[in-house]
């Protein structure tokens, strides 16, 4: 208890310098980078699978100028940050999340991620992304600096965008608008019973399968008509749904298809191919069973959190931990994701779990940085710590993929030194102060 | 009962009377007949132990007059020669719903089955002075609602049944059943016994009341009803038909319908509490835990329904079929044999068969799987008769008994046997014509204008299908339609050419040796002629040998009966774990390169260089050794979580519904968990009684229970109990203000109850709900209270102070950091989440520093799961206290071990590594707070229930076993066996907020074929 309190007082002293930010409920976005900065002495985890020991990271005007291993700082007129013994990571990217589209799960008024309708290709998440949400600041302090707010529901759910998590408004936040169209492959329920099962009329497995086939037929029709529409010069009647699909057929927007079982994944990939699209598969629980097929088709997979239960009672109890490693070790482009929004602060630890269960640590890091950037089409500007890319990264005192050592001390988004305070730290301080004051 | 035996037989609308009396008038002249029949030269199976050859059976009216060999038949008897034939007692089914109206609708879902358009129904809507809950309906008497159902009677008689017990399968206390024969005519003359048994189940059926929603609620309601019944006789204030009748039914046999072996044990436990010996109608899965089932001493009624094979041709679909389903398919037919071998008394019922015609095929399958014919016969005659108390009337062929018997071509259990007639109450019912002999065979057929053909008659009942063949010129093979009515036959076929069109034959049997048919022929061109068919030889398809096949090879039963179950459970061993980094959780702290010795399920010693002696040595160099993780808030291993229909449900017990077969037990062992507190959910302010378990994978529910631990109960506050996010909003309370008064009222009443008990003793109505509250007041039961925001936490502390009870633990307690000083002052423990927030309004200010702040203030603090997934890495949740608050590592690990042990009052036994404590030990690959740590071995009581290497072997063996079963299912399909489309059983996951309707699910499951 004694040592505890001492630690505690020590950290109190440290935070006194930044007392200003405690005074306000919201945390202001950081101003533009004004001076070139050189960070020295750190272990730089590039994000592409490599590590630079004792590296020097030089960045100015929001861009990375150089990443060097020789310890030299080429310019004199720079701000120096000594990060000896510390680690630098690219900003982590939260894929397929409803971050900023929901504040409180159980409060309907705060839910903005699921629209009514089956074919909502015209729906766009970016316009609903709430930069004033209290959640993003709680992610940044663990290293998550970018996200892909994604609409859900229906068969075709709409377009996601990629945002950075330190912004005044959604325009400000957008790194890439409408990066991907999202849809869910129609599935036949695999289990009888379960939640919500009661009260529902019993439907035979055959009838359920038929219903699925009908949904797939509708989906195919939608795509076929949308494709034909996209080839029209001037349609007589504007169809906003089909208009939105044009970007998918032209390749400006990727197609993400949620599919979990092996059959559904194969069906979803073949569906995409039929329309000249190589889809990104999300969910992908059973992808490990069809590695060869996925490799032949060079499919990118957005795998859901390893902290999940196996799908079937008989499955390897540790399969969710292993899935990403099996796929990545086979040479597939794998992105790790987590369902939900506030949960995204655990993203680094998902990569840590994957490391424990068979994937090289730096490759595991790629699954939440460069691989994600590739899947979203933003890898030319971000996703790794390489010359010319955005200076979006963070410094951790220890291994950021492990909750035991993750300690994000400073983070930059496009060169801006962002505020790592958040609601939780503020409440911690408020009440910790109360108790220590009462003790005196 | 005499009047029933003396009752008349009224057949159709004509009045044929045996020489007996009746109250019913007759329209027209009386037609009173002697009804005397003699069955001679038969092999008479009197009962399973006695068979008479060349014997005679005499019946008069509906009664057996005599049976024996060498009897002379007096004058006046109609003689039926049964040479070469068999006579058996007609079968008795102890469990049917014969003759009852269809049950209206299944129980409605909780809060309107998700529809939300239904108001809560708190008490009975039934008119009259009945009990408060419609699921308790002992006033239902089958004798008042039964009516003969000719169609169903015919169906059952064709199978061979002569009498049945009729159960009204609706409700928890279902009232009395009645035994009737399957005779037709007036309802008045079929009764064998008007009250055979009082009936029970855990399914509330059509009751419109919300309560109970859960299995544990059903159990509690039934227990309370027993107590109410005891009290009812001693009071004068209330007239209650249900309780009055319930009490009077206690001297009858008691039949309890359940849905499997787990509930066999549950029913038996209730029986033991109230001195009842139930006959239990179960589902046929008892082979899975035969020892436990035997230990109940219960007589069982078991269905002969077996699952169909799964269609596993598509390997991707086959993945959805679980090992449980596959093995269940293979082993279900061995159930009867397993019961027989274990010496369990049981009756077999046709109830639950998709088609009653499957009865004989399935009983033969059971015999092929080891059931003896003798037992089979007993289980469908004498045993059901004795269960129902009608052994003096049916079940064997003896003088004075009711003339219910079968005439068959052969041994009843032999494949190909034909039941000719089923005599019920001395009335003849023809199943298959006896006077026409077996006409199966190959015939030379000659038809005018067509020429010579070959006719082949095959099929059941001595011939039911036919085929025609012509050789030589215009050779052809075709099937023919064949129908037979007594000696008359008609055959219809089409040879396509010579002649074109149909050939129709209509004729009769003219000679029995050789079998010859003669008659008229008609061709499609309008010409008529004659035909003759003369027996040539036996048809090739005819079964050659009917000897019982050798017992079929089947896979072994595994424990538990699911994935990762094994035939042999891991054994307790003496183990020395050497050279590990040992986290003692004691003042010794973390020891480097230390050894720990486990013996007899306890920790024997901890130290350096311990001598192994005879112990098995495990090298833990580079590894970390800790005590097992304790999850203070878990909802695994249970058949339900919430009894949410009432604001207070302290009468329900999680201990009644522990499910030892839940795969999450094994999954959590793989995460180092050894002890879990299984809590009731948070649907109401006062929830149910908790159950502490150890994760002894493979053991029975009772063996999972943590012996000698203090009793706990779940309370809850906030959004869930006021039903903010679900429910109808009609149940009190709907505000935090009302929540306070729920507690005030309940504890006030409990105090008055306790006082009344001490003054008036057992004349006070025993109230299971208040009993639990009194235990709290007396520090014999401890509270774990689900809580979120500071106002409600503060409120309960005040209520507790003012009413004189203690709060042991606040669970969730995500705003505990705001009132940590108050909790500390009251010595209340905290069991929280590491970092959950934002999922509902009351956690808008939940922070991951909560645990740290409470810990630093000096509160005993734990991190729990409330989630089957999170429980798999609670060690890493503890690790988050370093990230969010710099808690020192040793203290951090105690958040999921010693601290929960302390708040559960079990730190004397578990929670740290110390000589004398339970050998609940985990070996980790790395620092257990790290994301990189894997549990390699998890010991509970010195038994390695989880071993990462053994797990790999189990999975491999499981694959082999599934491959074998898949092949067997494919074989079965290719031989024409019926299949069903694969559909897995949904993994059942619960958290605090899970609501489901046990009864509705049961009903749905039953309908899901």
From TrEMBL, chain B:
Xref: Pfam families: Amidohydro_1
GO molecular function: hydrolase activity, acting on carbon-nitrogen (but not peptide) bonds
Keywords from the UniProt entry: Hydrolase, Signal
Signal peptide: 1-19
Domain Amidohydrolase-related: 355-409, 852-938
InterPro entries: Amidohydro-rel, Metal-dep_hydrolase_composite, Metal_Hydrolase, Metallo-dep_Hydrolase
Record-given protein name: Amidohydrolase
Organism, as annotated: Pedobacter yonginense
